[in-house]
Automatic annotation (TrEMBL):
Residues 6-90 form the RNase H type-1 domain. CDD domains: RNase_H_like. This is RNase H type-1 domain-containing protein. PANTHER family: OS05G0353850 PROTEIN (PTHR47723), PUTATIVE-RELATED (PTHR47723:SF13). One of its GO terms (molecular function) is nucleic acid binding. InterPro entries: RNase_H-like (IPR053151), RNase_H-like_dom_plant (IPR044730), RNaseH-like_sf (IPR012337), RNaseH_domain (IPR002156), RNaseH_sf (IPR036397).
Amino acid sequence: MNLGRCSITRAEIWGALKGLELAWEAGHRQVELQLDSKTAIALLLDTGQHCHQHANLTIRFQDLLRRDWTVRVTHIYREANFLADCLAHKGHLLAPGTHMIDTSDPDICRWALFDSVGGFTIRSIAE
């Protein structure tokens, strides 16, 4: 999904919301949602605070959680989530809106396999 210009947190929340909507529509009833943003997870799971700029999305997310299914939300490190990174970069190249990506795309296949076997890389920060 290309959201145009927005914060990383908003993009993470949108991704979680759209991912759960797609999972529900596809008939999945046991889902593990992995996010690499602890901030997004805290906002999505906090049922008491809706006084923030993402409240309309977090309320929709929490409504989805109340359906008859099991959803486990977990934090994973960005280094273990290369497929999400790949999809985000591809999304920036698309027109605004929601798009379905061909799963035969070589980049998607490579990063899905990499993530599924627990691959990781060490990212260094230059000073």
